[in-house]
Amino acid sequence: MVTVDVEEERKEIIRRYRKLLRKAKPFLKDDDAKLIKKAFNVSLEAHKEMRRKSGEPYIYHPLAVAQICVDEIGLGTTSIVAALLHDVVEDTEIELDEIKADFGKKVAKIIDGLTKIAGVFDYGTSQQAENFRKMLLTLSEDVRVILVKLADRLHNMRTLGSMPRHKQLKIISETIYLYAPLAHRLGLYAIKSELEDLWLKYTETEIYNGIAEKIAENKTSRARFIRNFVSPIQDELNKTGLNFEVKGRPKSIYSIWNKMKKQDIPFEEVYDLFAIRIILDTEHEAEKAACWQVYSIVTDFYTPNPDRLRDWVSTPKANGYESLHTTVMSRTGKWVEVQIRTKRMDEIAEKGYAAHWKYKGGPGDSHESGLAQWIEKVREMLEQNDTNAIEFVDDFRANLFHDEVFVFTPTGDLKILPFGATALDFAFDIHTEVGAKCLGAKVNNKLVPLNYPLKNGDQIEILTSVKQKPTEDWLRFVVTSKAKSKIKDTLKEARKQAASDGKEIVKRKLKQMKIPFDGDVANQLRAFFDEKTITDFYYKVGKGIIDASEIKKYKDVKTDKTRPQRAKPLGQHYIDDMTKVKTAGKDILLIGEDMDMVDYRLAKCCNPIPGDDVFGFVTVNEGIKVHRTTCPNAPELLSNHGNRIVKAKWMSDQQNAFLAGLRIIGTDRVGLMRDVTDVISNELKVNMRSISIDTETGIFDGQIMLFINSTVHLEELSAKLEKVNGVMKVSRFDSVDNNEGM
Ligand code: MN
Predict the structure, then answer these.
(1) pLDDT tens digits for range 546-564
(2) I need a labelling partner for 266 at 20 to 30 A (CA). Which of 44, 302, 479, 565 fits?
(3) pLDDT > 90: percent of the chain
(4) Which residues of 170-202 are buried (b: 16+ CB within 10 A; e: fewer)?
(5) pTM surpassing 0.85?
(6) Residue 668 annotated among the catalytic residues of the structure
(7) Ligand 1 centroid distance, CA of 454 (Å)
């Protein structure tokens, strides 16, 4: 039992509430403070018996979420009230109607949106994807629903330590899969980075700590470097009379880790561990000129890399980001990124649109309409996508993640499409009819095919033909969800037509055979041809895939009474797999809530071995597959298919062998290969399955697949191999085949 000092707790609650009010004060109007107080009291009362997993009073959570809304997103009274009440309808006796009566329609709408998102019952196809879609639907009504939800998620991630591991896995996966990209798209860079860092902290704790430590170690030398680098620029800037501030911005741990992984380099070799940021305090009208003036001063002292100039001052990103970036060569021979922006731009970059609203009324309304445009795009996507929630989320993510290409119509109108968009995407963006009849395009006056990927600055004229019709293939040519859903609609329409033609053919044929047509006969026909649905059957007949003459055969069999057996229903597979307990003592993984020994397979995308942190995934056809929690497919599986995840734990003391991949890099020399294989097969008695080596450039680069027993065994082997003369680096790799798992 933990004893709680109730009096001390009460004081702490009041302290936190006062802190919130203090930060909100500058922008409170009329009765705002009263309203916040009322919301606080309602929430305090409603949650009074509840505690968080950490043991703290529950009210700390809504208070913290409200604080994030104020400090880190720049939101106002309505959002503070909504944040304070965000868990009240869901977790307590209070009804939405009461909120509406006490706090008004606006607040009630936001709470309703938030409650809907939170309604998680892990059942059916994908509740999470469906929730996400609902959340975005409410976005078109009030973007604050999403902003408060992001604040809620951020606080939950900050306090994740006290959650059990399987809950952690679910929360972090959703975070990296949906919330971080969403924060990015809304321009909330600080929140996005923190969510990503926290994801890494709970996924690869050791790596995270290692990088954090190294950043701390380098702090003094970094500060010295920045001082030296900036000093000549500062002197010059002072002469111009501009008001400015210079900061050294370290990169986030997550992005450093990403870079290390992508380029396969150690921490020490990541060149851009930090960027220099010069922030100007300038009048709105003078911003652009001032930024370029600073650019000119910086490049007077240091040579810029022409390939790395980014001008988001003249053309801001769609999420509102404005900044001028250049990478220059420092005197120590290191490239350094310099970001030049004004205070206003900096605020928007860190806190996103909400912060921008503060500047409302000033010139530069183009970004205001940028947000409206974005919401409009989301609304469009939601209205078009009536099918599968998971598919929808995938499309949506695809559109979130990608950067943009800027292209032009023949009359010079600017269109912004996601990176990777093709001429066909462009056609659908112009108009559905233009897309559906698209034959090809002329880009900068040259003929190109439908699947031509657009480049910045392209000017595109779409060529159409009335005879053109979308085909299945087209789905591979497009990336925008608008084009995808329009193509699917057309295909569906064509399919309906073929099915209705097929039905007529079947009716005619039966009439010839003197069999009366009814639902039973139709269903028997479907079963005879082994089709899943009657529509599938009619469609195949309509398309001529099933020849009408074959229907006769059904008559013969019908009299014979040997109808084909129906296949097992899909769900039965999992149940069979889940309950099949293996008898032999070969099992090394315990699976499910009861930690039973059931049939499973190890996923080929990440090749787990004993000691790895793993989970089980119930596949449609292949029983349970076991993945590493760090598997590239893990975020998608965990966040979209929560109901198909089962716990998995290694049992110790096993002699079984697992397939793992090792990559060995070194300088090539005569006999190196023999020494390496000697260590593997003779000294450590490990079986190799395959080995491939590339020695073309005098560098030895070998990939060896071998059977080992556990992570401990693998580490031992790596250590031995690293001692072989000429070997420089031994690392484990995942399979190249990343598309397994469903
Ligand atoms: Mn909450």
Answers:
(1) 887 777 777 766 654 444 4
(2) 302
(3) 23
(4) bbbbbbbbbbbbbbbbbbbbbbbbbbbbbbbbb
(5) no
(6) no
(7) 42
